[in-house]
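PROTEIN FOLDING TASK:
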Amino acid sequence: MSITIKDVEHVANLARLELSEQEKHKFTEQMNAILKYAEKLNELDTDHVEPTSHPVPLVNVMREDVTKPSLSIEQVMLNAPDEEDGQIKVPAVLE
C-alpha cells in the first residue's frame, strides 16, 4: 500500500487544513515511511500467538470505594469568589 498526494489532500480536506505543495510532498513521504515500517510486522510469524487486547496482563486498577466526610458549606464558601444564601454566585450567562 502506498500513500499518494491525492490521499494527503483528501485527509487534509477532511481535517480542514490548507497545505502547501511542499507540505503535501513532505507528508506523503512521511506517511509512506510509516507504512513501510509497519509492513515489517508482516515478517513476523504470529501463527501461534494468542490475540490479546493489551500487551500486559491487567487487573482492576480501581481503588476501593471508601466513604469520607465531605467539606462543610463554610469550607466550600471560603473558595467561592462570591456567595449568596449559602450558594456560589456566578455571573449570568443568559440575557
Remarks:
- Residues 3 and 32 are 6 Å apart (CA to CA).
